[in-house]
Specification:
Elements: H1 2-12, H2 14-30, H3 34-51, H4 54-65, E1 81-85, E2 89-90, E3 100-101, H5 103-118, E4 125-128, H6 141-151, E5 159-162, H7 168-182, E6 191-195, H8 198-211, E7 214-217, H9 238-259
Parallel strand pairs: 1-4, 1-6, 4-5, 6-7
Antiparallel strand pairs: 2-3
Helix pairs in contact: 2-3, 4-8, 4-9, 7-8
Length: 263
């Protein structure tokens, strides 16, 4: 099921839409159906242009961020753990001498470290997430994060890791299990501070609630700060297209999780 969902997701995201639109338009032109072919190509171009512009990327981002509930940070010290969701790591290779956390992971990691310090070095960090690659299941990121944390002075006893889960849904189940084992005195519904990217937060919160956790959001990795309407933001860019695709990925994830009764 995990592999099937991974494959299905690739066909539902904007890069696949663009490729399908181009292929359909070219095929129709080749079949001497110029009007239909040009219509498909123009629609494909319009979709690509919109998704690659700043205002559309901003609106898609805000559609997710505005759903994050406001919380009283005074409640953070009453939680059992600071949970940081993994965001991806890069393995060593011919042109990369050592493994390293991806950019998203670094932002989440640092937010977790900041919270640990802000809360008086009293609440442990749980770094959650194994390999999300069905073709390369060996987990890398949690161990790498632990190494970085210890080098920054975080005691090993205060940095827990979980490397079994392959997606957000599985992370929720594993987090509930680990906190239950490590904090047997915790209430029936353990409380956590949840750290993940702002656009990933709302789906993560719903997953944690479904798993039986009370999660307080502490988002990191905010991709945009405000709406810009200057000329540069109406020029298509790879960054805006990637952000729009990531937001659509989140909305598809929410819809898919609802259909599978994971939320």
């Amino acid at each position: 099921m995990f592999l099937i969902l991974k494959l299905l997701k690739q066909f539902l995201l904007p890069p696949a839409w663009i490729a399908a639109g181009l292929a359909a338009g070219i095929w129709l032109l080749a079949r001497k159906k110029a009007k239909a072919g040009m219509l498909i190509l123009c629609l494909t171009l319009a979709v690509f242009y919109l998704l690659a512009t700043g205002p559309v990327a901003f609106l898609l981002t805000r559609s997710l961020e505005c759903l994050i509930p406001k919380v009283d940070k005074d409640k953070f010290p009453e939680t059992e753990a600071i949970v940081v969701l993994a965001g991806g790591a890069l393995k060593e290779g011919p042109f990369r001498p050592r493994p390293e956390l991806g950019g998203i992971s670094w932002k989440r990691f640092w937010r977790g470290i900041e919270l640990y310090r802000e809360l008086g070095d009293n609440i442990p960090i749980l770094y959650s997430g194994g390999s999300g690659d069905p073709l390369d299941p060996a987990p890398l990121e949690p161990g790498l994060a632990r190494k970085y944390a210890v080098s920054l002075g975080i005691p090993e006893k205060d940095f827990w890791t979980e490397s079994v889960s392959r997606n957000t849904y599985e992370s929720g189940r594993m987090i509930k299990k680990i906190i239950g084992e490590r904090c047997p005195e915790a209430i029936t519904r353990p409380r956590i501070v949840l750290v993940t990217s702002s656009i990933h937060m709302i789906r993560s919160l719903m997953v944690m609630e479904k798993a039986g956790l009370t999660a307080l959001p502490a988002a990191a990795d905010f991709p945009v700060s405000r709406l810009k309407l200057d000329v540069f933001n109406f020029i298509p860019s790879a960054e805006n297209f990637a952000l729009s695709s990531a937001c659509i990925h989140e909305w598809l994830g929410i819809a898919g999780y609802y259909l599978m009764n994971r939320l």
